[in-house]
Amino acid sequence: MKEDNDVRRIFLLNPDQRLVREAAEAGVQVRSARADTRDEPALRALLAEAADAGLFVNSARSLALLADQDAVRRLVRDNRLSPGGGRVPPGALGLTVETLSVHGMHQAVGITARMPYGLLHPAPLTEDSAAEVRAVVTALLDLTGYQYGPAHTSVALTPHGPVITGCRAGLAGDPVPELLKAAGGCDLAAGAVDVLCGRLVDAVRPGRFAAAAVLNPPWRLESAEVGVLPHVRHVSPPDALAPGHLVVHADSPEVAARRVTSLKALVTGDAG
C-alpha cells in the first residue's frame, strides 16, 4: 500500500457509530462495508477492493482470527504468551488494554482495572507490571497480523505474570473511552480515526485517576448532571433502558473508590 494515500479517508468494516460520528466531526470521509468477520474468503474481496482504493485495511486472516476468541486463546497458548498455560487463579486482577495500531505498530494507550465497585483508570500497577502487560498485548497483536485501528484486550494479572484472556478488534465499550478522557484527555475514538488514516498517535500520560460504576435504571440526574456535582465527568442519559454508568475523577485510587461509591448512591438513591 502506498504511503501517499489520501489520509482523509478511512475504511470501516461493520462500522462502529462512534467512529462514524468522530470521522464526520473531523472531516474524514468514511467508506464502509458489512460482512461476517468469521468468513475469511468473503472478507478478502471486500478488503482487496478497499486497499485498491488506497485505504488502510487489515488482512482477512487477522480480522477473522480476532473475531474467534477460541482461536485467540489457542494462539496465546501455542506461542506461550501467558504463564501457567493461560490459567487464571482466583483473585487475579482483571485488566483491559486499549491499543491503537498503524502500519503494524501498536500503541497501548490505556490499561484499566476491574475493581469491586467498577472500573479504575489507569490501573494501579507498578511501572514494571504495566510494561509487561503492554509487551504481551503488543506481541499478541503482532502474531495476529493486525495493522490498523483500535483493539481491546482482556488480561488477568497473576503472580506469575499477565495472562491474556481475550482480544478483539474495535473500540472498548462504554465507559472505558470516558475513563481515558477523564483521566488524561485521551480521546480513543479520535485516535482510532487517526490510525485508520495512517497517522501515528502520541501517547497521553494520565494526570489523575478516573473511576466508573454501573447504574441500573432508573437513576436520578436532577443533581448529578456533569458540572453540577463535583468530580463527575459523565453520567449516562436518564432515559437509558439498559444499565448506564457514572464516571468521576480523583487524585488517587482510594479517593476514586470512595467518590464513585458515594456518588453512585446519591444518583441512584441507594445508600446500601
Describe what you observe in this structure.
With 272 residues, the protein is an alpha+beta fold. It folds into two domains: 9-85 and 92-203, ATP-grasp fold, B domain (D-amino Acid Aminotransferase, Chain A, domain 1); 208-271. Helices cover 34% and strands 26% of the residues. α2 packs across α3. It is globular.
Q: How many helix segments? A: 8
The CATH homologous superfamily name of the largest domain equals ATP-grasp fold, B domain
Specify the structural class: alpha+beta
Helix content: 25-40%
Task: Please provide the ordered H/E string of secondary-structure elements.
Answer: EHEHHHEEEHEEHHEEEH
Organism: Streptomyces monashensis
Protein name: ATP-grasp domain-containing protein
Indicate the topology:
Blueprint: E1 9-13, H1 17-26, E2 29-33, H2 40-52, H3 60-66, H4 69-78, E3 93-102, E4 105-115, E5 118-121, H5 127-144, E6 149-158, E7 161-169, H6 176-184, H7 188-196, E8 209-215, E9 232-235, E10 244-250, H8 253-268
Parallel strand pairs: 1-2
Antiparallel strand pairs: 3-4, 3-6, 4-5, 5-8, 6-7, 8-10, 9-10
Helix pairs in contact: 1-7, 2-3
Overview in brief:
The protein is built from 8 helices and 10 strands. By secondary structure, the chain is of the alpha+beta class. Strand 3 and strand 4 form a beta hairpin.
